[in-house]
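Notebook entry, structure prediction.
Reason for the run: the old model in the group folder had no record of what sequence produced it. Starting over properly, with the input documented here first.
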Amino acid sequence: MSHFLKTLPCFLVTLYLFSCKPGRTLESVTYLNKGGDSSSYSKVIAFEPIIQKGDKISITVTGLEPTSAAQFNQTPVIVAGTVVSTPGGYIVEPNGTINFPQLGRLKVEGLNRGQVVNMLTDSLVKYVMNPIVTVQFMNFKITVLGEVNNPGTIPLPEGKINLIEAIGLSGDITMFGKRNNILIVREKDGQRKLGRVDLTSTNVFSSPYYNLQQNDVVYVEMIEAKLKNVDQAQTRSNLGIITSVVGIATSVIVLIISLTN
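New structure, fully documented this time:
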């Protein structure tokens, strides 16, 4: 009996050592390690985000005559030398238009920034000498959640970002994230769509979800091993407590047996 009690802590430690699981393979955490001939993905296709209903855009007009251009710019409200409000930009209304000074209702839905610049430049030449138009997004953002080091929402005035850039801005995927099954949640035309992307494959470059769009949500799922590791950590913690208690109890029992003999 006393021999069993003395060997019980050793048995528990051995059980703990055998409960440890092997780590992930190098292939499962390496980006773009799967794919065919490079010619299938080497061509870079230019991407420009499209303006949608609900987008907010800023429009700035300059020219050789600043006074004539000023009427087309939203100006901050200044009271006693202090800015009390800043330009709110133009919100694309449900009918896809914005209300622009002098020009009235302009259809901008479905256009990219460059197309809006060209449209405004052509329309403003009779009001401003050599007009220069700048268009930026004010509420373009994407959100990255899950197993990344810095989850959160990323504002993008330029309105352009791809999936790899978004992952980089979020501090990269943790060792417990599924790189081969990234979920993209996209809202378009009043509908929500779900897409899956494999970042370990070069096929990612041809995915319609590689270039992110307004309000996209990127979710990196947790691998099953992390849940097992959490359970194992709890088990090891409990096992450590049990081992300590058993060790103390064993010492007390051995001491009692020694004294009674």
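Summary: The mean pLDDT is 80.
The old model has been moved to the deprecated folder.
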